[in-house]
């Protein structure tokens, strides 16, 4: 849920003019606020984050309307004794990104979001750990492969939202993740690489972001993402479209950056790509 709110906020920030032109900006902000209101309620103390309601096994076995469910609604939370840096940092990223989206229209709400994000990131740094070690049942549903990506991703958003360079200092002490195979709820490195690359610092982040983009656009040499016979990017068999959506978003965003910064192209292993090339590829995926 937090990743969804982060991505929706990012799209609203970057494509604000497009949304305004179609009179959809207010709808996008309402959707974000629906999520951020919930996330802030879940963060009712600086070092506490409620991260799960209900039992994984009984919920998955129940195929009724939520209104009719009688399964246990047990709550689980992170705190100093039960840390979860991945969940806390992703929630921090969501709230920081949303604060940027809301800053032009509701300064007070944006400030509230940012304060929650700052507290959650500090908690994640101070008490490292995987959230499924605290919520044992989650290991059977949405287990996290690590928290380093969420930490860098959250730091990149917080630097952008707050202007505090301490977050860039954090990023400088941690790795960029190398070439990633997907951009998804469990692996945010590509998003962090693009955010940092946009800031014009650390060439290695830009290099890794562009390697992913080249691989998606089928110009990355031996690292190209597989495609179906019909021409769709093929990442993983379970809900493949989610990975296509984030990949095409990344390419659309990078095409926008190329135009904005008057950078002519990306030099891939097999070809040189312009912003028009990236946009054409995204349209082919749509």
Automatic annotation (TrEMBL):
Keywords recorded for this protein, A-Z: Carbohydrate metabolism, Cellulose degradation, Glycosidase, Hydrolase, Polysaccharide degradation
Residue ranges of domain Glycoside hydrolase family in the record: 1-286
Protein's name in the database: cellulase
Family: Belongs to the glycosyl hydrolase 9 (cellulase E) family.
Organism listed in the record: Senna tora
Record SUPFAM superfamilies: Six-hairpin glycosidases (SSF48208)
Catalysis performed (reactions): Endohydrolysis of (1->4)-beta-D-glucosidic linkages in cellulose, lichenin and cereal beta-D-glucans
Any one GO BP annotation for this protein: cellulose catabolic process
Pfam families: Glyco_hydro_9
